Task: inverse folding
């Protein structure tokens, strides 16, 4: 008796199951905040601020979650790349006062692009060195990884202080990105819009690479099961190094963006962001870029809403958010399969 | 009898034994040997951090739990005593009350964190403790009415502990025994007791189970040990000792603030002390705390000289600047993890063992 | 023995403190299906993983097609024409069936004729082509794992317990698929616990116990000897019907 007849070949393929629920949290949160904030212009202001902050945190955190998902390496020294990015961007921008102080966005861009490029390049390079010197010797040993990367963070922070001095550094934000767009009662800060646009582009580009390229395919497969990828004949170690470098470069970009937002940075800035970044990648699910995106927006929104309503509870509320999400989904919003 | 006091955990290295004797003797006699405000301050810190780092060793070195919340418990102890003395006045009862409340809060929090740790992986746990400790630090600096905010609290201590109090009319061996000296010896003896207590715990059946959990917690569970209880107990014991350490610091400094107890820098310091000294050895805490704190306070002087000497060379001079002492300790930390994973203590013990093995008569010695 | 595509000589493997393989000697003849049998914990999976370089042999030599591959890395070993289907199947659940197959096709594109042949063997692959592999049933995942291994011609297939946990109907499907595969003269090393499955497909058989090969020879000889089966495997053929 032919057993293949028992398998129904004529039935249509089943619908793909897409997990939409976590996506809904953001609009729900935003809507809930309206009555709490009380007035619409204030709410719009806070929401844009939250989204902008979330975007910048996403840029900083995306590299870390990919590195962890792919290489099982938790880099507590990630904050170093953020700080370095901010410092390099500031250093490149300062001598270009002629361009940054111009009213023209185009002129500002001529100054911004090299600053951001330098930030990403140097952070990426630092990442390569970090991977080679600090991380590679301790692959597979989580405890030592945590300790060693922390040590790397301390050394990097001190090196920044040695090179640039211990005081805080001013980051000159270009003129066309200062001020706000005015729509009647509502004022939307120009830089926040810029941050949202840049963050959105980064997310879009990452999704494109991950879903439409061979390298992206390898990364997604490697996050699930890097051993199997090797068994299929791919030298995934080389991919690891590339991802680590790109992740560090992204952290540098995030640091530069954050520095421009705050208009001042210290060597400790990167380390200070690490707490929020950890919360974001835990909420999103380690290894998931999409989860990281949603987690970052959530954290940004919560930080701004609660920062307005009850400033003392801002960080605590994000921790509460993390605990609630972990109770609902213990491995994060979009856990990677097989982890 | 020495074996009994040390709970059977002998130094097992001649150099280590010598170092320990020197350290303990120096600490015991600091007021006489190294009089002066600065040296007394350093010695007090060494005593306190020996206990605090040893309690962190219990968690990290013996049970294999990475937690960044240790300074939180340290701070709870400090603030407990500070708030009590600030609010209730300089009385011994106030200290006892503050300490009791602090211990209760610490143990409860430690238990909560310990239980939560089992729902999540170790890496999650490390990150979560970091977040919780940060939140606590921010909370402490924001509840200014109770905690004194960013500036912290200054408060009087009981009369007997004040500099104006004199125990004897004259001097003893050239030293005037005033309230500060009394406070010093309270700190010294309590820290010593805490250390010996921890030594007793890690050398007991309880301690052996902790080490089994560190090696392979599935196996430990399969062997019948409820790892959740042991982990939680380790968390609570470690937190309690850190709390007492914080209380001692509060008594000495007569000031408690986020910068003295809760800052992440202190957490990093503890980590550095433990790794450099040697994880999982208890004696590593003694050696590590001593090396670190002496470097922190006296190395900077040496670096200042070197920095001035190299003033011509730009980057080098900045790297040798005394404020950058942490950079060099960070480098030492990283090197320790690679080349001395067992720290100074482990290295001394290894050297001692290999020396023994090289001597022919050693092989006939019964253990 | 020049018709041995793969040969292991004195292979020892240590995992941490545990000594799993104690000197494994055997050969896989070219163009035939070899079965590696044994009870749980005998070391069969460890043997496959050692061949694949996922675990390093602490002693001994592994020769593949005339080359010593003992010290090569896993990607290098795979690139020499060995496909590996692990016990856990190694399916990428977040990737679609198509993406899983695409990864396995080292040339970069999938040959349509070959794909058609695979669809004939495993029709479910066509149905689920654009869906995440995580939505497949256990049996279908196994089919995908095997499909990936045969998406391109390979010199050697290492397959670990393909019938584990599958319904009898699916197992029968597997057997007919492997029978077709045999026709293509592919060399296969199959680890199995299901003796009935093994008997229908295997040309030669090696039995492992405690990290050693304790019997080797033709499958037909073992299948005919009930007492030998009882001795080596602890149960007889009839128990598996």
Result:
């Amino acid at each position: 008796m032919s057993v293949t007849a028992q398998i129904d070949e004529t039935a249509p393929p089943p619908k793909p199951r897409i997990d939409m629920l976590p996506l809904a949290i953001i609009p729900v949160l935003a809507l809930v905040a309206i009555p709490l904030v009380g007035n619409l212009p204030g709410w719009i202001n806070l929401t844009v601020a939250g989204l902008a902050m979330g975007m910048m945190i996403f840029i900083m955190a995306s590299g870390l979650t990919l590195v962890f998902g792919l290489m099982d390496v938790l880099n507590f020294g990630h904050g170093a790349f953020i700080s370095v990015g901010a410092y390099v961007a500031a250093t490149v921008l300062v001598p270009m006062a002629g361009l940054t102080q111009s009213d023209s966005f185009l002129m500002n861009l001529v100054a911004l692009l090299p600053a951001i490029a330098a930030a990403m390049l140097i952070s990426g390079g630092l990442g390569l060195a970090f991977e080679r010197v600090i991380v590679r010797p301790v692959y597979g040993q989580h405890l030592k990884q945590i300790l060693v990367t922390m040590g790397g963070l301390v050394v990097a922070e001190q090196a920044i202080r040695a090179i640039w001095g211990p005081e805080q550094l001013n980051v000159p934000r270009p003129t066309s990105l200062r001020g706000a767009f005015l729509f009647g009662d509502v004022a939307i800060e120009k830089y926040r819009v810029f941050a949202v646009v840049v963050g959105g582009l980064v997310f879009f580009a990452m999704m494109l690479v991950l879903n439409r390229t061979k390298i992206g395919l390898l990364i997604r497969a490697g996050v699930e099961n890097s051993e199997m990828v090797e068994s299929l004949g791919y030298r995934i170690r080389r991919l690891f190094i590339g991802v680590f470098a790109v992740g560090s470069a992204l952290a540098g970009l995030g640091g530069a963006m954050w520095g421009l937002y705050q208009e001042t940075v210290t060597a400790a800035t990167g380390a200070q962001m690490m707490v929020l970044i950890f919360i974001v990648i835990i909420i999103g699910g380690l290894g998931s870029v999409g989860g990281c995106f949603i987690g970052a927006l959530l954290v940004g929104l919560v930080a701004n809403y609660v920062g307005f309503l009850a400033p003392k509870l801002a960080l605590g509320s994000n921790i509460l958010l993390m605990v609630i999400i972990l109770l609902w989904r213990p491995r994060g919003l979009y856990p990677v399969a097989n982890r | 009898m020495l074996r009994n006091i040390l709970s059977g955990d002998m130094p097992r290295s001649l150099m280590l034994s010598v170092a320990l004797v020197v350290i303990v003797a120096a600490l015991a006699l600091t007021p006489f040997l190294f009089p002066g405000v600065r040296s007394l301050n350093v010695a007090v810190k060494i005593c306190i951090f020996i206990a605090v780092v040893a309690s962190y060793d219990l968690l990290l070195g013996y049970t294999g739990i990475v937690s960044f919340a240790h300074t939180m418990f340290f701070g709870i102890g400090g603030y407990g005593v500070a708030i009590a003395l600030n609010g209730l006045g300089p009385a011994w009862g106030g200290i006892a009350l503050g300490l009791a409340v602090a211990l209760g809060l610490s143990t409860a929090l430690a238990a909560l964190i310990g239980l939560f740790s089992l729902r999540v992986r170790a890496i999650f746990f490390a990150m979560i403790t970091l977040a919780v400790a940060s939140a606590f630090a921010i909370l402490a600096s924001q509840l200014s009415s109770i905690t004194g905010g960013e500036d912290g609290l200054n408060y009087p201590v009981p009369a007997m502990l004040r500099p104006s109090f004199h125990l004897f009319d004259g001097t003893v061996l050239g030293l005037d025994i005033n309230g500060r000296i009394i406070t010093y010896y309270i700190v010294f003896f309590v820290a010593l007791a805490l250390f010996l207590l921890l030594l007793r715990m890690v050398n007991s059946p309880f301690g052996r189970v902790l080490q089994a959990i560190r090696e392979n917690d599935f196996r430990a569970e399969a062997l019948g040990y409820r790892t959740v209880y042991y982990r939680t107990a380790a968390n609570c014991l470690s937190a309690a000792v850190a709390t007492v350490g914080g209380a001692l610091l509060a008594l000495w400094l007569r000031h408690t603030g986020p910068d003295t107890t809760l800052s992440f820098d202190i957490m990093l310091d503890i980590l550095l002390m433990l790794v450099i000294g040697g994880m999982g050895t208890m004696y590593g805490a003694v050696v590590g705390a001593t090396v670190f704190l002496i470097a922190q306070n006296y190395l900077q002087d040496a670096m200042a000289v070197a920095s001035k000497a190299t003033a011509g060379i730009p980057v080098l001079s900045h790297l040798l600047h005394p404020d950058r002492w942490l950079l060099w300790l960070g480098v030492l930390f990283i090197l320790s993890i690679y080349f001395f994973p067992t720290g100074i203590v482990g290295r001394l013990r290894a050297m001692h063992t290999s020396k023994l093995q090289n001597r022919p008569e050693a092989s006939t010695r019964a253990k | 023995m020049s018709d041995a595509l793969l040969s292991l000589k004195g292979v020892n493997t240590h995992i941490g403190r545990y000594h799993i393989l104690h000197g494994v000697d055997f050969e896989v003849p070219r163009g035939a299906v070899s079965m590696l049998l044994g009870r749980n914990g005998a070391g069969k999976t460890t043997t496959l993983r050692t061949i694949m370089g996922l675990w390093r042999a602490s002693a001994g030599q592994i020769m593949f097609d005339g080359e010593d591959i003992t010290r090569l890395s896993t990607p290098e070993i795979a690139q020499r024409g060995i496909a590996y289907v692990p016990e856990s199947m190694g399916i990428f659940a977040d990737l679609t069936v198509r993406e899983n197959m695409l990864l396995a096709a080292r040339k970069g594109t999938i040959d349509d004729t070959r794909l058609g042949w695979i669809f004939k063997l495993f029709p479910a692959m066509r149905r689920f082509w654009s869906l995440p592999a995580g939505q497949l049933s256990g049996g279908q995942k196994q089919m995908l794992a095997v499909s990936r291994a045969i998406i391109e011609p390979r010199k050697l297939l290492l397959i670990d317990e393909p019938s584990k946990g599958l319904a009898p109907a699916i197992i029968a499907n597997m057997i007919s698929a492997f029978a077709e595969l045999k026709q293509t003269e592919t060399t296969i090393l199959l680890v199995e616990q299901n003796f009935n499955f093994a008997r229908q497909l295997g040309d030669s058989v090696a039995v492992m116990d405690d990290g050693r090969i304790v019997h080797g020879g033709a499958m037909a000889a073992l299948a005919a000897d009930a007492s030998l089966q009882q001795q080596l495997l602890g149960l007889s053929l009839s128990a598996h019907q």
About this structure: The interface with chain A takes residues 64, 66, 119-120, 122-124, 126-128, 130-132, 134-135, 138-139, 142-143, 264, 268, 271-272, 275, 315, 318-319, 321, 323-324, 326-327, 330-331, 333-334, 337-338, 341 of chain B (CB under 8 Å). DSSP finds 17 helices and two strands in chain B.
